[in-house]
Amino acid sequence: MSKKDEIKLNVSDVVNYTKLSGAFSSALEEVVRRNIAVEEAKNRGLTASDEELQRSADLFRQMNNLRTADATDEWLAGRGLTLDILENFLEENILIYELKRQLVKEYDKKEFFSTPTRKNALIEAAYNAFLADAAAK
């Protein structure tokens, strides 16, 4: 076991550090933006299917080299997280993705952007425009 694994921290240590280092406000802003987007996705009737959730969970485990359910449980526990928190995070990601796709359909009427790079820029621009409008309300 490394020295890093033996050090115990509490949430206030992390919050205080992020506040003092300037990272807190950007993290807080992103959480607020995610909540606004998820609420809008739900208001539009968007949902995450069981298949989408399973694919997302499989990809998450693959990206984090978690080959078994036990490895996933251990990884989550080591970060003070639960399976429910992970599932909620993955569902939110899917809802935000689907909202972005819907926003593109609304904004991409004349096919202004014909390359994948430009299309991705449009996706992000549409999403940011929606969030800016929502924040102004």
Protein model, in words:
The protein has a single domain, classed as Triger factor/SurA peptide-binding fold, CATH 1.10.4030. It contains seven helices and no strands. It has helices spanning 3-6, 11-21, 23-43, 50-63, 69-78, 83-107, 116-136. Helix 3 (23-43) packs across helix 6 and helix 4 (50-63) crosses helix 6 (83-107).
Named at the architecture level, the CATH assignment is Orthogonal Bundle
Q: Order of helices and strands, N to C? A: HHHHHHH
Mean of pLDDT:
87
From the spread of the alpha carbons, the general shape counts as: globular
Q: What is the CATH class name? A: Mainly Alpha
CATH fold call: Triger factor/SurA peptide-binding fold
CATH superfamily: Porin chaperone SurA, peptide-binding domain
User: Fraction of residues in helices?
Assistant: over 70%
> What class, by secondary structure content?
mainly alpha
Range of strand content: under 5%
Whole-angstrom Rg = 18 Å
Query: Separation of termini?
Result: 51 Å
Biggest beta sheet attributes: none
Q: Which regions are unreliable across 5 or more consecutive residues at pLDDT < 50?
A: none
| Counted beta strands | 0
Number of helices: 7
Number of domains as seen in the coordinates: 1
Helices and strands in order:
Blueprint: H1 3-6, H2 11-21, H3 23-43, H4 50-63, H5 69-78, H6 83-107, H7 116-136
Task: Give a nutshell description of this structure.
With 137 residues, the chain is mainly α. The protein is built from seven helices and no strands. It is globular.
Which terms would index this structure?
Triger factor/SurA peptide-binding fold; mainly alpha; single chain; 7 helices; 137 residues
